[in-house]
Design a protein that fits this description.
Blueprint (H helix, E strand, L loop, with lengths): L8 E10 L2 E5 L17 E4 L2 H14 L4 E5 L2
Parallel strand pairs: 1-4
Antiparallel strand pairs: 1-2, 2-3
């Protein structure tokens, strides 16, 4: 069960910022319809795209979001 009353979709962008370095961004301005989105950090960085994506999706579920919608940079 999620940590708060949120539901809906967290919008995020995943991109390779350097060879082998991936960043997922999910700024508040992409999620204005979600109350309390400022509780999320603005990004997550890692060396594996699948790992970064998984981390964001697990964090979103933990915060009460139904799913993550990935957008192109």
């Amino acid at each position: 069960m999620g940590a708060g009353p949120k539901s809906g979709t967290l919008h995020a962008i995943l991109q390779e910022v350097e060879p082998g370095l991936f960043r997922a961004e999910y700024p508040g301005e992409l999620n204005q319809e979600q109350a309390g989105v400022e509780a999320f950090p603005d990004m997550h960085v890692g060396t594996d795209a699948a790992g970064v994506r998984s981390w964001v999706e697990q964090m979103a579920v933990g915060m009460g979001y139904d799913r993550v919608e990935w957008h192109k940079a």
